[in-house]
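User: Show me a protein chain along with its predicted structure.
Assistant: Here is one chain, sequence first, then structure tokens.
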Amino acid sequence: MTQTVILGARETVVRDAVADGDRLWVPLDDLPAAIGYEAKPQGLCQGDLCVPIPAGRRASWLDEGGRRLDVAAFAAHLGHTLARDAAHGVWSFGPAVSRNAWAGSGPVEAPDVTLPDMDGRLQSLSEQRGKKVLLYCWASW
């Protein structure tokens, strides 16, 4: 089944990827498009930056023929969390952020956005400064 991989702003449909439980096997040739890394002798690389495959994990990261990488294992090694929709073949990876990371940092200002309200009138977040605002976000996927 075709799998969709989302990593940051990159969204790629990988036709030859194979989902196996919590493992996502992506052919090494598809890695640059799927996750922005290329398989090289020194590890998985983005330009000159390389992440070596840990010696003790080589067998669990690469399939028996060494032609596919378990992207979920690699992403977990980088500290990314996984959100997955198995029914639709969608895998989303992103850096984990602890709620405690924001503690003590003071208020965080949201970027200004302008969106239509329930009546279709445009409302800017900056116009609501000083008021309590609830932003409700929803996605069908």
